[in-house]
Design a protein that fits this description.
By secondary structure, the chain is an alpha/beta fold. It has 38 helices and 18 strands. The strands form 4 sheets. It has a 7-stranded mixed sheet, with helices on both faces.
């Protein structure tokens, strides 16, 4: 591997001016690439004025670098080069791994015109190289013996000097973005505090930051570990013991330029003012602090350290797995494993040790319970990091009793929670919640949500079970979501949308509440199970809901007649969308008899409208008329605008199937007017789509195109993924009939991809409408096939937004 980088590019730009510098840069790139190509080099990356090449052999790499330096010798650009050999990992088209980092580090220590070579590469070539001795690189691993290719004379390498930082077994992986951000912050702040949950890699990142900043401090960089210090009064003496100045540390620091790295300060936070005073008295000194909570003193810049990126997590897991199993290769389950571990560095490292014993599938299944598995790491880890349980316990033990109780109670939530829910269910106070956030045990999500990392939540669940409150908390948790569901069912349209939006953001909590109901109180969950149907249908979770209906109906004695009828109706509706019309009719007719037996006209009306829809989906529109006449009579008597609009919509569907297009269009338009007047956007979008289908049937393509786009825009507002798929399919047919095979293929492939990725499906009657149009020769055309191929790399969201923009 060869890394190249221009030395003093900023100075050169200033000397040459923008125009001449651009010319010199282009000439440099041409010569670099030409020499690499001559010797079989493959360019893997270009960033600014730097290059990354790989070669088949070390000899080819050295020959290419020599030719590059020769080609650049007569120009103004001076390039430093680093060469290293080792194993790499291909992730999403990029080479990653420790060897890549090492090659980049070696390049960074060289001077312009110099080629520096690692000992690993030297062992592979029979070329005379100058021994430059052992040097410590900024990755903080053990000193490396480096060599120089060629006889040029250069100043000493830019390696670490006066740096008192612990040696690291491996380079930092997966934190390039965070390190760049921290370097920028440290330019303007003398006190930077890295905060984060246990195991997030704060210490390792702080060391990397200190190494990168080391050349700014003439009196060196000094490491002070405070993990074993429990008395705040002993913090200053610990610093003095590390850097000297035991008699008067402030005076000692006052005349020096040095950087302090203070690790693990959370248990002695009362020492924060003393640290602030030291920095105030030493204007040329700075500090990097790691803590699970910020110091909260003047001049401090906090930097929360979150989980690794997906790519960084894979790279770290793979690197650590290969340390115990050199032939380890990540498989298809690696991303799921990393996600299950919250992409926390310590959890990844601990789990990676298990690859000697467990396959990916076995490891993934055992990670359902993480903490017992995440043990038995390196023997040289601090005791608090030997297992994930010990790491979390370190933070837990620093909490007050009130905070410990709240931390345990919050485990009742699955996947996150909103503030109001925590206050109502867990009796959470704002100060205690804020404290848990500050101590990095609780994290802030999007949209006013909060969550515990799953590894942290597992520990909290153990605490909840030990505290004896688990049963009561789960009862309160379920009741909260049942109440939301009941409120949504009774609310006006604008309020209902807001409540449904809240429920859509809590799928795991809702599942937990429904599961609780099966064991304790099915009747209480009926309003929630009712109101969830279309939200979960659109989210691709229909089968989960259908299984719940089936389990709940297994014991009719646990339900009131009204609850029994409601669940039968919803089960029938589920069968409709699963293309099981006979099962749907049977459930609906039983529900209809129950509602009529109780004199519940609103329930009766809902079932009648669903029966109209069943006959439409079955392709038997004539059978729908009798149901429609009964439904519209009740709806008008109750003055239920939503039911009237829905009934008109369903009847329009059946008239369209019978070929009565003008009558159908009239009913659709009346339905849209009624529903819009009541603000029922989710209902309006479906009717607009149906009107678009009618215009497609009558080959009014311009009108169909406009209406599909309008319905697509409305589906984005209501998160209706299923309707989005319908609209994409309809627009595909419009494009096909207009002779645009490429667009037709692209949109049809995206419609099917939307179904597949979200677990939704078009009803048989709808799919047949579209497939009847997309038959050979259209589907066999080169353009249609090209569009399908193009869809493999297309972003469905971006395509949808473009279509919506046209609609607007």
């Amino acid at each position: 591997m060869l890394f190249t980088d221009i030395e003093g590019s900023t100075r050169l730009l200033r000397e040459l001016g923008a125009s001449r510098y651009a010319e010199a840069l282009m000439a440099h790139r041409e010569r670099i690439r030409a020499a690499a190509s001559t010797h079989g080099g493959v360019e893997l990356g270009t960033e600014g004025d730097a290059f990354f090449f790989v070669f088949q052999s070390a000899g080819d790499c050295l020959a290419a670098s020599t030719e590059m330096q020769r080609a650049l010798a007569d120009g103004p650009v001076r390039v430093r080069m680093g060469i290293h050999s080792g194993e790499v990992l291909l992730v999403e088209g990029d080479y990653v791994g420790m060897a890549v980092h090492k090659a980049a580090r070696i390049s960074s220590v060289a001077h312009g015109g110099q080629i520096v070579v690692s000992a690993q590469t030297r062992a592979l070539v029979d070329v005379s190289l100058r021994d430059l001795g052992e040097h410590r690189l900024k990755d903080l691993t053990v000193p490396e013996r480096l060599y120089q290719l060629g006889d040029g004379e250069f100043p000493p390498l830019h390696t670490l000097r006066h740096v008192h930082l612990p040696v690291q077994a491996t380079p930092l992986l997966g934190r390039e973005r965070e390190l760049a951000e921290l370097l920028e912050l440290s330019e303007t702040h003398r006190l930077v505090t890295l905060t984060g949950t246990g195991g997030s890699g704060k210490t390792r990142l702080s060391l990397a930051l200190a190494a990168e900043r080391s050349d700014r401090y003439a009196d060196g960089v000094w490491w002070v570990s405070l993990a074993a210090v429990s008395d705040p009064e002993l913090v200053v003496p610990a610093i003095a013991a590390a850097v000297g100045g035991a008699d008067d540390l402030a005076a000692h620091l006052g005349g020096r330029s040095l950087l302090l790295v203070l690790d693990n300060l959370e248990q002695v936070l009362d020492a924060a003012p003393a640290i602030g005073e030291l920095l105030a008295s030493a204007p040329e000194c700075a500090a990097i602090v790691t803590s699970r909570e910020r110091l909260a003193i003047d001049g401090e810049q906090e930097y929360p350290v979150g989980p690794l990126s997906p790519q960084g997590a894979v790279a770290l897991f793979t690197a650590r797995a290969r340390q115990v199993k050199p032939d380890f290769e990540p498989g298809v389950g690696i991303d799921a494993i990393c996600a299950r571990l919250d992409r926390l560095p310590l959890a990844l490292e601990l789990a990676a040790t298990r690859v000697k014993l467990l396959s990916e599938d076995q490891l993934l299944s055992r990670l359902e319970r993480r903490l017992p598995l995440l043990a038995g790491g390196r023997r040289d880890l601090p005791q608090r990091q030997a297992t994930m349980r010990a790491t979390i316990a370190w933070s837990y033990d620093l909490l007050s009793e009130i905070e410990k109780r709240l931390f345990a109670r919050l485990a009742v939530f699955v996947g996150g929670f909103e503030l109001e829910a925590a206050e109502r269910i867990c009796d959470a106070g704002l100060e205690e919640l804020q404290s848990l956030i500050d101590k990095s045990l609780l994290r802030e999500g999007e949209g006013g949500h909060f969550f515990l990392l799953e590894t942290t939540r597992e520990y909290a669940l153990e605490c909840l079970a030990a505290g004896g409150e688990e049963g009561d908390l789960r009862t309160r948790h379920a009741a909260w979501f049942f109440e939301l569901g009941a409120s949504a069912g009774k609310a006006r349209p604008e309020q209902r949308d807001a409540l449904l939006s809240r429920l859509r953001q809590e799928p795991a909590n809702v599942s937990a509440a429904l599961a609780w109901a099966l064991e304790h109180d099915i009747e209480a969950a009926v309003p929630l199970a009712d109101v969830l149907f279309f939200s979960w249908l659109n989210a691709g979770r229909l089968e989960e809901l259908r299984r719940w209906y089936a389990q709940a109906l297994a014991d009719p004695g646990a339900l009131s007649p009204s609850g029994h009828a409601t669940l039968l109706m919803m089960a029938g509706l589920g069968s409709t969308y699963a293309d099981q019309p006979d099962a749907a009719r049977a459930a609906m007719n039983e529900a209809l008899a129950l509602f009529r037996g109780q004199g519940d006209e609103r329930g009766e009306l809902r079932v009648l409208n669903h029966l109209v829809g069943i006959e439409f989906a079955s392709g038997t529109p004539e059978l729908a008329f009798a149901w429609h006449e009964q439904a519209i009579e009740i709806a008008e008597r109750l003055n239920d605008h939503e039911a009237i609009g829905r009934s008109l919509h369903y009847m329009g569907e059946n008239l369209r199937e019978m070929g009565s297009y003008d009558q159908a269009a009239e009913l659709y338009i009346r339905s849209i007017e009624i529903l819009r007047a009541d603000g029922l956007v989710d209902r309006v979008s479906s009717v607009v789509h149906s009107l678009a289908d009618l215009r497609l049937d009558t080959r009014e393509l311009s009108a169909a195109d406009r209406l599909y786009r309008e319905a697509l825009a409305l589906s984005q507002r209501t998160n209706d993924v299923r309707l989005s798929a319908y609209c994409l399919a309809g627009l595909s047919c419009v494009a096909a009939l207009n002779g645009d095979g490429d667009t037709a293929g692209l949109l049809w492939a995206l419609a099917e991809r939307t179904e597949r990725e979200h677990g939704v499906r078009m009803l048989g009657t709808e799919r047949r409408r579209y497939e009847t149009i997309l038959v050979p020769p259209i589907s066999d055309s080169d353009g249609f096939r090209a569009g399908i191929t193009q869809a493999q790399d297309a972003d469905p969201t971006a395509v949808t937004l473009r279509l919506v923009d046209v609609a607007h």
